[in-house]
Queue: 4 jobs
Job 1
Amino acid sequence: MKNKFIVLEGIDGCGKGTQIKKIHNFIFELDKRNEIFTTREPTYGKYGKQVREILKKDKCPLKNSELLLKLYTKDRKEHLEIIEKIMSRKTGDINHFVLCDRYYHSTYAYQQTQGISFDRIHEMQKNFLKPDITFIIDLNPELAYSRMSDGRTSKEKFEKLEFMEELRKNFLKLKNKLNENIHIIDGSKSKSEVFEQIIKVLKENSIFL
Ligand code: TYD
């Protein structure tokens, strides 16, 4: 069994967080030899912390695009030191999984929506480790927006409806633009239906073999 790198992506409020926990639990139960490193970007490392500071302060979604592009990329470089170590482990019977909440697809989608060109982003991301499989949980931004509003009054930098509409389109375009294993999942379905859809695709792609 080869080690597997799985990524979940989508606009804010698409339900990634719930699904990643479900996938984690599923893999953990599936085989006692499975070891899973479940992680996220931005991280809480030094660059990830700088990103979060900017996200807290900025109100305009288009501001600080260049700075954010650099910080997300540096954060990823640091994160990959851990991910690559796990992915290169050969420990007999043990199956290693890296499960990541957001990866470079978020940079392509968000920073493009901020106005940076695909080619420029691609130049900075193209040499990073490719996931074995990526799920983009697709959801109508209005629905995502209303889900995010539950219990919250203030909105984060990127949580503006117009920005999210464009963001969704940029996420969907990635399937054809990047030459890799990307699957679009309908996030408007119930949590268990979305999960079943993801597990079905993981099985079809021999991720558990
Ligand atoms: P998010 O997943 O919301 O982090 P958390 O839930 O831990 O606060 O990520 C923060 C924001 O950063 C989110 O709006 C998406 C955005 N983002 C980018 O713009 N580019 C990137 O490369 C990444 C990884 C995230």
Job 2
Amino acid sequence: MTDLRVATRTGGETTLDANAVEGLRSSLRGRLLPPLDPAYEEARKVNNGMHDRRPALIVQAAGVADVLAVVRFAGAHDLLLAVRGGGHGVAGFGTTEGGVVLDLGRMRGVRVDPGSRTVRAEGGCTWGDLDHATNAFGLATTGGIVSTTGIGGLTLGGGMGYLARRCGLTCDNLLSADVVTADGRFVTCDADRDSDLFWAIRGGGGNFGVVTCFELRLHDVDGIVGGPTFYRIDEEVLRRYRDFILDAPEELGAIFAFVKAPPLPFLPPDWHGKPAAAVIACWSGEAGRAETALSPLGDLGDVVGSHVGSMPYSAINRLFDPLLPPGLRQYWKGSFVDELGDEAIEAHVEPGSKVPTIESGTHFFPLDGACQRVAPDATAFAYRDVDFATVIAAAWHERSDDASIVRWVRDYDEALRPFSQPAGYVNFLAEEDRDRVPVSYGDNYRRLVHVKSRYDPRNLFRINHNIPPA
Ligand code: FAD
């Protein structure tokens, strides 16, 4: 091991001598990977291929002790630190140029307690890990709709998915969390212990510490009936979807999307690659009521093809995994929508018909039902009166397409500005949307700054949609 040049928290560089790095290595059970290590090239990759960054050091933590060691080391040497959960953050906050990456991807233990209907999951789990474990007990909680996404970033930012209308956001189901704070302490926070911290991590992202374990409430979800239905695009289909979903029983999760029809066997071949609308439905209520709940899907528009049936909840969250392999290039813009008015729908149809690739789409996540029954100040996630969170999510393979596809997202986002909130779900905001962070927390922002000042006064955890301390 030789001396290492490492980026510092304040934008400079420092030299770590070989002894200091060896000292850190010897305190770990996990792996410490400097750039010359054969495993480094693979380990530095995050899901979004746009972020081709070279950290000075990567630590793949094996447990809480390693997390404590890295946070203390980074704090003592004033190093720039990125914390990686599932590595799916489109904004690229799971890595850093020249700093230290603390990768939790080996901390993926899950323990379900069927008696109390709770699950404890380590900070590096994916939704695939968690859904698989809870599904065996006929239980689930709100999680992401792609199984390779990390529970870490998703839960800390809020967390939306098929069960949100029935069970609330993922963060609404968080019962406690084990957190390593910036001063290198280990705390378990919940409604009674370090309750300010517990409030802040339910929506405030990775600003407040490294969560090594999440304890989440589970719900009875013994199989679902659902799947995608594709339609010819027109204004009516989105209008009808809006009216339908906001009136539907809360056991129905249904996400609308403008897409390019993928080459799926149940879609006519001449539709493959053509612009289409899609509704991906997930009925998690009584099986006997599924048909009534789902039958309006056939009347939302001109149906091109449909594949709706019974499956485990864990399976619907894997449906789109094959479309989204690691390394795709991605660029997203998101907003909250109070009410999806007819003019807004008109503004969507033209750019929504020009989705650039089959991996891309504009998605509408309904946030009514249980999400709206939580008070805006009960958790850091402030937007409890909006009907939808939308995201224009572009994903593509070739670097040569970067400029034109990023332009499509930005132009589309610009066209929607008159109809959407300046605020957006932080997990859907682009890296450069930093100026939208305060408004995205609304009236909760002041309290978040206060909690940040208490738990991370030097802003060690800054590689995120940052809430700087006062
Ligand atoms: P990372 O890049 O590892 O982390 C993202 C941020 O969270 C970073 O700032 C990181 O420091 C912090 N972080 C992660 N884990 C921890 C931890 N344990 N402790 C402290 N900080 C941590 N969102 C939804 O709500 N619903 C969806 O259905 C959904 N689907 C998605 C599908 C895809 C394909 C992708 C790419 C994203 C999706 N998202 C969805 C957005 C998702 O919520 C964010 O990308 C989220 O940040 C991913 O978390 P991660 O742990 O994988 O990411």
Job 3
Amino acid sequence: MIKSKFIVIEGLEGAGKTNACICIKNLLKKNSIKNVLLVRQPGSTPIAEDIRRLIKKKFNDDNLIKETELLLMYAARIQLVEKKIKPALKNGIWVISDRHDLSSLAYQGGGLGIPKKIIYQLQSLFLNNFIPDLTVYLDVSPEIGLARALKRNPLDLIESRSLFFFKKTRRCYLEKSKLDKKTIIINANLNIKKVTQNITKKMLNWLNKQVI
Ligand code: T5A
């Protein structure tokens, strides 16, 4: 049996992360990996879900300043990692997370301009060496991703930011993903069928390389 793994799906709004999570879960099942926990960030514990609501809410008389936003993302993440992700991995359960700390680097670092060294400090302080075994980055242009997100629901606080913000966020995602050997990049501008085929192909390739 392969040791349980921590798989992270990343990308802009409308990149298709929900579809990718389901696709990977099904693929693992077909390959006899049935114990899989799906989580999302921020969220997936009662406290982290409350933080998620807070981050997404539009306040008329108060703005979330970028440092508060970053710290809230980290508060939700630490809660989830310690309460659910680490215990699951310890018990042989695979974990698929819709977003993780690369989102903070891309959105709060790339998009909002918080110096990356601050985010790396948070990572090292609170996550230590806890890094994903695999990251699947779904690369979508902000124009396409936001149009998909808008078709589904009215845009929330973060989704309502400018195209420039999302371009900077994407640039950061791409820079980091290209440098990381544990990241698979998928062109998410294509139709769902093609994206799913590409994820399946690359995931199978990765799975076959995992040592027993
Ligand atoms: N955030 C999060 C930070 O700023 N910093 C952080 O550290 C963290 C963890 C989370 C928000 O918080 C921010 C980022 C986010 O703004 P969220 O609701 O989880 O909020 O936001 P998203 O993760 O972006 O959720 P989305 O649902 O918008 O994105 P998905 O999951 O990538 O998109 P999905 O799969 O739901 O698809 C959206 C729509 O597009 C269609 C789907 O059918 C669906 O209708 N679609 C496609 N259509 C055509 N072709 C394709 N290839 C398609 N793929 C999907």
Job 4
Amino acid sequence: MVQKQYINGAWVDSHARGTYEHRNPARLGEVTGVWPQGDDEDASRAMNAAAAAFAGWRSLTAVRRADQMQKVLRLMDERREELARIITLENGKTLKDSRAEVQSTCREMEFQIGEGLRVGGETKPTAQPGVFAYETRVPLGVISVIAPWNFPLNVPGRKMTPALMAGNTVVFKPASLTPGVGKALVDLFHEAGIPPGVVNMVVGPGSTVGAAFTGSPLVKAVSFTGSTEVGRGIHRVASSAMIRTQLEMGGKNAIVVLADADIEAAVESAATAAYACAGQWCTCTSRAVVEKPVLEEFTERLMDRVKQMKTGDGSDESTDMGPLCGTEQLATVSEYLRVGSQEGARLVTGGERLGGKPYDEGCFIPPTIFTKVTPRMRIAQEEIFGPVLSVMEAADYDEAVRIANDVPFGLSSSVYTRDLSRAMSFIEQIDVGLVHVNMLTAYKEPGFTFGGVKDSGFGIPEAGSSGIEFFSEHKVAYIRYREE
Ligand code: NAD
């Protein structure tokens, strides 16, 4: 049976005739669902429903909106395990990672519900006697939420919560690789009794549904997470229609290991953040830039650590790393493995699709390390988005920072050192949105903004106290209360 679209408070048949099968990336023979290839008409119905629902939703007080969002959160909390299993089924990540995703979604939603209750304004002394003035925030209207497959619950949850708390309505397009997670999320809104039209979801290709959600005059803002290439295209279209954009995009995150570092901690950090979700987190570590005196020790210990990792079906509790999310990802990452060897990097572990049962049934590439990677190589510059770590040598601290900054991206970075002065200098000199000292490149908390610089991010970043800012407009009121 073909799954449906969620428009105006109901699951309805897609206008589009075309369908596609989604397959479990750990067992490609297993079809997990048949989904519509939604079209312009589906998108248009969703946007019209959202536009019609806006007046009612914005007129509720923030406290009433928060009551409804709390119900969604309670349902999410009750269904943690079910949601985690759907994430693993569609994305392939381990159940442990999926449970962590549900947990961080709950935390981020909780924080943004609170932020929605704290949206305030300000007042200042005015130039005229008998005049009071204040500035406040008002909602924008219909918001497009366009999500990737790597955090299929967390990203839309992090975007939709502040958008809705600010009084906007939402049209949501999940990635085609994770439509079931999108559906499970929207089911929570439905069961919580969110009014019809406030949240709508259309499954379909980015080139049709995504494009419609980006260029329509019904839409006031697009919050997008995905690749830099698609983000750029969205911004081109949206900006010419005066639609604001928030773009969270790719990364090429470096861990910098200085000679005085706790090597064991650095190895653990690199191994965790390079291979979590098979290297498909935007904040994954994809480069290790290591000062020469500790390069050999770091590499050897890392290889030992990585060889202990078990690759397999994410639904098996003993698995450390699951498959890549689908055959396209498999093809892209395989191509980078070829490129790395061709460019002269030394492959020291992994590097080939795993064969034999049960691996040949899924999209499995083992944790891979290239050493002798130099800054101009493609594997040092481009986002691979797979379980591939490039180890690079730096002569000293200055060269390490130069290498770390020498990429088009600027999402996240980490330095391992015991030298406070070096650590603080690194924080100043590294061009990223998230910088860490002696911590994973992937670490984040809901109370702080999340976003990158350079090709990694554009617009007001998500989360933290800027979470609601993007989804609201300023309004100033001048009130004459006495003639003088
Ligand atoms: P993607 O760019 O291929 O797709 C993202 C979403 O955009 C999908 O829903 C897709 O259908 C849609 N889309 C595609 N073409 C479109 C178009 N023309 N108009 C509108 N929408 C369109 O990215 P992906 O492969 O799903 O996700 C992986 C990428 O996401 C990586 O580059 C990763 O770094 C990035 N990412 C970034 C962050 C962050 O916060 N910075 C977080 C997670 C993922």
